Fold each of these.
Amino acid sequence: MANSHKACKHCKKSIRVESMTVRQFGNFCSVAHSEDWVITNRERLAKKGRKIRKQISAHELRELNRNTISWQESQTQKAFNAMRKNEELLWFKERGLTPTCISCGKAKGGDVWACGHLKTQGSNSRLRFDRANTYIQHNKRCNSDLSGDIYGTSTTHGYLAGLKLRFGEEEGQRIIDYCDSNNSPIKRTCEELEEMRKEFNRVNREVLKQLENS
Ligand SMILES: [Zn+2]
Ligand SMILES: [Zn+2]
């Protein structure tokens, strides 16, 4: 329909449909206003919670989420952790070794593997997606119940000693020093996090293939 007009969802100004910025959550007079709408509504969402959430569809909510750093970080962390667990399994398999936990040195047993961070995800944004900071760990016993078991207990050597036992004194210390010194905060954009996630998923698929074929 030529000459048909619609109101911008953000500023309500009437504008020709052909020249609108079309997003899954509405039509806008400009890219800037589509972004402004997302920011405004994110704030309303956080403040009013369920009432506002009811007014937008699940699809729109997903689109809103895509524009929040916290959602992007958690999705990218899931992809990274899944990739790292498989990379670790491959590392052990290539050496003909049974996979063991970095903190207690024991096999999986009745637990499941977690991607254990030496420096926690929350406190260290720079290392949360870094291979040097992550090794397999018992999900319940060592990661959850012992908060990563960094320093060891009466019955376990702990994460730090585990690095030296697995990689040797020198290499283990190099990893610890690297993690200790790379602690300046880093801010990533939604786009950067999406790109990283794509790459982690791609690598994970390749590692899975190698695990199946070896
Ligand atoms: Zn507008
Ligand atoms: Zn363990």
Note: Helices lie at 31-48, 50-55, 58-66, 69-94, 139-144, 158-167, 169-181, 190-213.
Amino acid sequence: MDGHDMLLSPAGVDALRTALTRAGYTSDGIAARLGPQATAGVARNDFRAALRATEDRDPLGTLIRLFVGEQVEPEEAVAAALAPLPLADAFAAGLVERYGDGLRMGLDLEPYGTDWWVLSDVPASARPGRPLPAEHVLGIGGATQTLVGATVRRPVETALDLGTGSGVQALHLSTHARRVTATDLSERALRFAATTAALNGQDWELLRGDLVAPVAGRRFDLVVSNPPFVVGPGTTTHVYRDSGRVGDAVGAELAAAAPGLLTEGGTMQYLANWVHVAGEDWGDRVAGWFAGTGLDAWVLQREVADPMAYVNLWLADVGGTVDPQRAAAWLDWFDAHKIEAVGFGIVSLRRGGHDDPVVRVEDLRQRVEPPLGDRIADWFDRQDWLRVRDTDGLLAQRYRAADGLQLRQEATMGDEGWAVDRQVLVMPHGLRWSEEIDPLVLALVGGADGKLPLRDQLALLAAAHDVTVDELAEAAGPIVAHLVERGVIEPVAG
Ligand SMILES: C[S@@+](CC[C@H](N)C(=O)[O-])C[C@H]1O[C@@H](n2cnc3c(N)ncnc32)[C@H](O)[C@@H]1O
């Protein structure tokens, strides 16, 4: 563990693992114990049925009540549930604390995946009225899950998790990377990550430092980061969300560092916020982060918030009572910089080793069919396919329309009957894109049955519309590239 202290001694970690395993304190074990109704209740933060089902306080019941139901439990029951971990060690680690006439959780111990546990600080929701401390170590949150789902899970030799916190991303990396390195600025977070790793029988290289500083000069096949991306004047109150950088600079800084971090063919994926400035195109701003990096970049904007909603969200996130002066100062900063909104999204970069990288920045707010990581991997594969084909190469190919494509029309009734106003092509699967299309695209996609090379399909269209094949081919080239990029039509092998 590179000398990083853990919350417990190695023997203590073993004892805790024994206790959790013996009790069956895993996601499946808990679901089996509670049954579907109480399990569904827990997912909605309704613990009533779960508490009824665990009243006899056997070790699993006590662990569920303590760490899932956030209850105060009798000391003897907690001691029995954590045995062979001595209660004194659990206190020393901060795992449990005295409260009223019993004990409550002092740290969050969350069963995760099929057989993992993640240790983190207790969330703000479990301590109403008490603001989170500055060094709060985040548990499994919405952003965590977004990055987990978006990560390309292909086997790699080396992977890096920048800003590992409790170590969640590193746990996932360990399933497809031979060696995992994880960094954090916070010594406290590294203690949690070291403990999470040991508890799950993992061995990661853990390094402390600011962003990429601890891995300067080293390269990785895969880099992931859920960094402290919150946008503001650069004030740092909480290490889990504030980078100390002004505005959205942390996203730009990671982009600039990416070429030096990646092996040839390597991928970097991170979450970011970016500002929408009045009179400026947000997409151009974000695309500018990658200029000169030589990397292929695909940026998906998943959410947009107005400043008021944004500030309220992040002030509420740290618990306690919201300070109106701080809210006002934050909003004033947005006003002073003409920031109208903040975008949240996923940046995926690849070091492809070519001198004409593709940089695409787009809105993708719809719900997508998981896992997003597979879609992102496919997108980069399609870019590779497109890169080695000119228009002639594209036209020589046969294509098949994606499964289940739908066409939606809007039309207005006039003197001559229905007049079509808009035609929208909808992909019901994958990224669930929809886009307005013109009759040429409609004809190209409609004719993509995998039988005819595109050039022959165009010849038929040209004859029907009284234009030359060459004229049509010139118009069709970029359209076909776009349709292939999105997977609307797929090249047929052979
Ligand atoms: C949003 S949390 C992400 C935690 C975890 N990786 C996840 O996905 O849930 C950001 C993490 O970055 C760490 N961090 C904050 N500033 C940092 C910096 N300048 N360099 C490295 N890590 C930093 C925080 O301590 C925190 O653990």
Note: The chain has 18 helices and 18 strands.
